[in-house]
Amino acid sequence: KLIDDVVALVESEIDNKGIVLIKEFGNPVELFVDPNRIKDALMNILKNAVQAVTGNGTIIVKTYTKNNSCVFEIKDTGSGISEADIPFIFDPFFTTKQFGTGLGLTITHRIIEEHAGSIEVESKKGTGSTFRVFLPIK
Fold first, then answer.
1. pLDDT per residue over 11-65, tens digit each?
2. What is the rounded CA–CA span in Å between residue 53 and residue 80?
3. CB within 8 A of 37, min separation 6: which ones?
4. What does each C-alpha distance from 46 to 67, 68, 138 come to in angstroms?
5. SS3 45
6. How far apart are the first and last CA of the chain?
7. How many CB atoms are closer than 10 A to CB 9?
8. CB < 8 Å & 24+ apart, contacts of 107-112
9. How far apart are CA 25 and CA 70, in angstroms?
10. What is the 8-class DSSP label of residue 132?
C-alpha cells in the first residue's frame, strides 16, 4: 500500500514521458513506521528515477522481504550515477542536476535511518540505478 500510494502520485508523469513501469510487489508485511515520512523518502527516489529516464526507459518497483526487513527496490534504466559521485549522493547540497538542491537524497537517507533502516545504491553511468531501502519488519 505504501509504495503503491507513492507510485500513484507520479504515475501520470511516468505515462507522459512514455516510461514503462513494472510493479512486482511481494506479500504485504507490517511495518512500524511513519507512513508519510517513508512515502516522502520513497518519493524522492522515484522522482529521481523518473528524471533520470528518457524516452522508452523502464522503472521497476519491487517489494520483498530479506533478513527480517522489508525491501523497497526502485530500479531505472536512466542515465546512472558515476562511480566517483556515489560516495557523495547522500551529502547535503551535493547535486549533479542543473536545478537540483542536493537535499532530496540527504532527507531520504535521514528518514530511513530514523526508522532503523538502511539504503543501498548500485549504479552505472549510462545504464541506470538501483536503490534498495531496507526497513525492519515489525
1. 999 999 999 999 999 998 999 999 999 999 999 999 999 999 987 899 999 999 9
2. 9
3. 111, 114, 115
4. 24, 24, 24
5. helix
6. 16
7. 13
8. 107/40, 107/41, 107/44, 108/40, 108/41, 108/44, 108/45, 111/37, 111/38, 111/40, 111/41, 112/41
9. 11
10. E
Grid coordinates 503503491 are at which residue?
A: 4
DSSP per residue over 63-130, as a string? Answer: EEEETTEEEEEEEE-SS---TTTGGGTTSTT---STT--S-HHHHHHHHHHHTT-EEEEEEETTTEEE
Query: Which cell numbers in the block locate residue 13?
Result: 508523469
Helices 2-16/35-52 angle, 10° precision: 30
What pTM was estimated for this model as a whole? Answer: 0.92
Q: If we measure between CA atoms, which residue out of 92, 118, 119 comes closest to residue 107? A: 92
